[in-house]
Design goal:
The chain is of the alpha/beta class and 498 residues long. It contains 17 helices and 15 strands.
Length: 498
């Protein structure tokens, strides 16, 4: 992500306002699941319709089945289309929904993404002053909460009065408004269809009682939601009161128009619509920005609003120190020395990580890898490849930064914008590299929280089908990626203090 967005006065105000809240609800939608590669709501409905067509033995070819599914969604809306699928699928929902949601690997194949992890950080800082609710079926929020060392109490998925009895004593509830399908159990009524949404509107559901109460007494931040959920809209109409802080974090990346005027018109209309419901629509450039807004709210509360400095200020100061003390682009001698030092650290880090992989039984002999270090500019708008294991640079004027644009062909830029690992093939042709892994790079300077400062790219001369980057077991790959990121972050942190 780019920390440049935090230069906006409105975003700084949002961070401080929510950091002060003592009655905050984080309402988490499908965006938190999609970033972990679970299907979106639309994709889930489409998969259910395809399953329904097969179960009902509809007289359709493969192409016709896809067209039928698309037509059903367009004609009946997503909720109506899911009602059709539910009617035609022969098995009970609790059998087929998790199969479509998770696939063959099951829930255990998925881990929390940046948004879920930052909600967990918020919970650790706000403690009893934060409620977590979600329209998602998965347990990614629970797993993220369990991974926070500061959280010592049990985590409990709540699905209403009929859910399992919560543990005695202090605990954290994650309220699943539409049902829960975790890796160890299922519980609660599954809300899928238009009819079930109508039933929730009778005024006696626990979901309405809970959301209504929270909207009356506190503040709400809508995270990873399309803001089209009919019940959420109704709750806002009925229960939101003046003087509260409600905000929706809306990502431009997925729906950006090529026409700047049309994009501005869309945002003005959307903002006006939500303002009428008491919600401040906050537009963010990239998916990763959502996680960092949440991080900043928690960090601001942790250090106090009075002592808080915005993310752009903290990142700019740190990156300028790295540029001055390690890269030194304005001093030919220091620049050459910095190139040698950075390349040596990159080679040593990559070599040590590969040695550990080999000791784990993975054959590394036939694969040639390289690693490069990309850092953001101090204004957060560009990304520059300053060092690589396979070459030394001698003239900083020949190193061209690339804009931080979600549509960029550069995989390093894509990894920054998404805030997570991104993989792919080189876009340049011909290229000696066959496969690339992009890993966002963060540092944690003392007292400054987590700073997004750049990206590591690891490249292989072999194709995707033949490189160890794809053949390593998942746990080995995670350890490999984590090792190189930690080592380079530690080198930069130490160098920034020199």
């Amino acid at each position: 992500m780019s920390f440049a967005i935090f230069k906006q006065a409105a975003l700084r105000t949002l961070v401080r306002d929510f950091a002060r809240s003592n009655a905050l609800v984080a309402l988490v939608g499908a965006g938190a699941s999609v970033e972990s590669r679970l299907p979106s709501w639309e994709d889930l409905v489409e998969a259910a319709l395809l399953r329904a067509a097969a179960d009902a033995k509809l007289p359709l070819s493969t192409d016709e089945t896809a067209r039928w599914a698309a037509d059903t969604i367009r004609r009946d809306s997503l909720l109506g289309a899911m009602a059709t699928a539910k009617t035609l699928i022969k098995e009970p929902v609790k059998k087929w929904l998790p199969e479509l949601l998770y696939g063959e690997g099951g829930a255990g194949a998925y881990q929390p993404g940046p948004i879920s992890r930052q909600v967990a950080y918020m919970s650790a800082i706000f403690e009893r002053h934060l409620d977590i609710a979600t329209t998602n079926y998965d347990d990614l929020l629970e797993i993220a909460l369990e991974h926070r060392d500061e959280i010592k109490v049990p985590i409990f998925p709540y699905t209403g009065p009929k859910s399992r009895r919560p543990p005695k004593g202090a605990h954290i509830k994650v309220r699943h408004l539409h049902g829960f399908y975790g890796r160890t159990r299922q519980q609660g009524e599954t809300i899928l269809t238009l009819e079930q949404y109508h039933q929730l509107q009778r005024g006696s559901s626990w979901q309405e009682s809970y959301i209504g109460e929270k909207m009356m007494e506190g503040d709400c931040i809508f995270i990873g939601m399309s803001m089209t959920d009919s019940n959420i809209l109704r709750y806002l109409d009925y229960y939101s009161a003046p003087g509260q802080h409600h905000a929706a974090l809306i990502v431009r990346q997925s729906e950006r128009s090529n026409n700047a005027n049309i994009q501005a018109a869309h945002e003005m209309a959307t903002a006006a619509r939500w303002k009428a419901k008491g919600v401040k629509a906050t537009f963010l450039d990239h998916f990763a920005d959502v996680a960092y807004v949440l991080h900043e709210i928690a960090y601001c509360r942790q250090v106090s609003v009075q002592n808080y400095r915005s993310l752009d200020q903290r990142c700019a100061r740190w990156l300028k120190a790295v540029e001055r003390r390690i890269i030194a682009p304005h001093s030919p001698r220091k620049f050459r020395d910095g190139q040698a030092a950075m390349s040596e650290v990159l080679r040593g880090t990559l070599g040590a990580a590969l040695k550990a992989v080999a000791e784990g039984g993975v054959n590394i002999e036939d694969d040639k890898l390289a690693m490069s270090l990309w850092l953001l500019s101090s204004d957060g708008t560009r990304l520059t490849c300053w060092s690589s294991t396979d070459r030394l640079q001698y003239d900083p004027d020949t190193i061209m930064p690339v804009p931080l644009d979600a549509g960029s062909k550069w995989l390093a830029v894509s990894a920054m914008c998404h805030g997570k690992q991104v993989v792919g093939k080189p876009t340049a042709s011909p290229s000696r590299w066959g496969y690339i892994v992009g890993l966002p790079l963060q540092v944690n300077p003392d007292g400054d929280g987590t700073l997004p400062v750049g990206c590591l790219t690891i490249t292989s001369m072999r194709s995707e089908a033949h490189t160890i980057l794809t053949s390593m077991p998942a746990d080995v790959a995670a350890e490999f990626n984590g090792t190189v990121r930690k080592a380079i972050a530690a080198f930069l942190l130490e160098g920034s203090k020199a």
